[in-house]
Design a protein that fits this description.
Pfam families: AP_endonuc_2 (PF01261). 48% of the residues lie in helices and 9% in strands. The chain contains 15 helices and 11 strands. α3 links the parallel β1 and β2. The structure holds manganese (II) ion (MN).
């Protein structure tokens, strides 16, 4: 049994106070689902097996380009971050892995592995960083990295990605995610084709260094930090990259990296159909890459994305194993609370999508019954699956109410005493 950061007796007491109400709610929902021909325990078991990775940078307070307002007890280094991630997993039982960001999380690999293993955690995809300059680096990324006009700058960016793979190998990761800030701010500043050619050339070098059992994820973003054009701007370009690189290359879909109102679930469907969906960065947004908590603005969109994923799961699409990760900026909340609720929201969307009557949906689609097809989805979405999620957590040692248990534990006050206040400089959006 791994060491738990929150007192397990406290979690047990918190759960005991809620258990009988939960059992009644679970039974009532079970009866309702039974009438729809859905065995509730099977849904609960699928929910219990669902996992989403925590980004190491998510446990620190985020910020905007205007300011950052750090909270108490912010993690000082990757080992504090692992501790905070352990809290999230202990109470939700949905986040067994951490996604590291290099160089922010650079540390002795053996120590990283040991710290995670002690908490029962493992490492998800590695993330490289060539969107800012780091102390001691020779060439600046001000005008780009993997697509830079200067060969030495590109070589430095490639080298950094190779180092990320090396660290990842040492700590048991199986994937590298590459997002670049490369692009232009003025029409004419950059030749679109030449920049993309240089990018592909750099990525081919990274791909060549990828271990046999690894996957390479490329992440597109429509704008920002470059405001006129970005080199990897949309899913079409992302798909071309994955096709050019080879069978270990896949597209990563960050929900915030599209224009408002873009039909993301349809992009997901296309990438599944052509075997190139690598995974997700979950978050929510109203205007752009807002990095808001998953499901707070548009839970229906999150559900519709999971509807595509569950449909693919049911069709047993070969090689279908998308990586799930949160990628958010917590500017006004306790990041641990935000990440716990976001993990719950992502799991909720998955559970709701499992309830879709696919036989009925197929029939309505064949009959062109638009209204009933939509209602079939809505019926699943409107079902309050809360008791299923809570029961899955309870049975796997988590908290029935993760935020209540966390607040009762006083964890934030405790770490605030141990960790000196961080300086409020720098942005937090990634
Ligand atoms: Mn992202």
């Amino acid at each position: 049994m791994s060491e738990q950061p929150i007192d397990t007796d406290l979690v047990a007491r918190e759960n005991a106070a809620r258990q009988s109400a939960l059992e009644r709610d679970y039974e009532a929902l079970g009866e309702q689902l039974d009438r729809r021909g859905i065995p509730i325990d099977a849904i609960r078991d699928k929910v219990a097996a669902f996992a989403v990775a925590i980004p190491s940078w998510g446990v620190g307070t985020g910020g905007t380009r205007f300011a950052r307002f750090p909270g108490p007890g912010e993690p000082r280094d990757i080992f504090d971050k692992i501790e905070d991630c352990a809290v999230i997993h202990q109470l939700t039982r949905a986040t067994p892995t951490i996604s590291l960001h290099i160089p922010w999380d650079r540390a002795e690999p053996a120590l990283l592995k040991e710290a995670a293993a002690r908490r029962g955690l493992a490492f998800d995809a590695m993330n490289s960083n060539t969107f800012q300059d780091h102390p001691g680096q020779h060439h600046s990324y001000k005008f780009g990295s993997l697509s830079h006009t200067d060969a030495a700058t590109r070589a430095q960016a490639v080298e950094h990605n190779l180092e990320c793979i090396e660290i990842g190998r040492a700590i048991g990761s199986k994937a590298l995610t590459v997002w670049i800030g490369d692009g232009s701010n003025f029409p004419g500043q950059s030749d679109f084709a030449r920049a993309f050619e240089r990018y592909l050339d750099s990525m081919k070098q990274i791909y060549a260094a990828l271990p046999e059992d690894w996957r390479l994820f490329t992440e597109h973003k429509i704008y920002e930090p470059a405001f006129y054009s970005t080199v990897v701007q949309d899913w079409g370009t992302n798909y071309l990259i994955a096709r050019e690189l080879g069978e270990k290359a896949f597209c990563l879909v960050d929900l915030g990296h599209h224009a408002p109102n873009v039909n993301i679930e349809m992009i997901v469907s296309r990438l599944i159909q052509f075997g190139k969906l690598g995974g997700f960065h979950f978050n929510d947004s109203k205007y752009g890459d807002d990095d808001l908590d998953a499901g707070v603005i548009d839970p229906y969109r999150l559900f519709l994305i999971f509807n595509e994923l569950v449909a693919a799961e049911r069709r047993a699409v070969p090689g279908f194993a998308p990586a799930h990760m949160l990628d958010q900026s917590h500017n006004v909340t306790d990041p641990i609370e935000s990440l716990m609720l976001s993990a719950v929201e992502v799991t909720r969307a998955y559970a709701q999508a499992l309830l879709v009557d696919r036989t009925a949906l197929d029939a309505f689609q064949e009959e062109n019954d638009a209204l009933m097809a939509s209602e079939t989805l809505k019926t699943a979405f409107r079902t309050d699956v809360g008791p299923v999620l809570a029961m899955a957590r309870l049975r796997s040692g988590g908290a029935v109410d993760p935020v209540a248990a966390y607040r009762a534990s006083g964890y934030r006050r405790k770490v605030a005493d141990e960790r000196p206040a961080a300086r409020g400089t720098g942005g937090g959006i990634v």
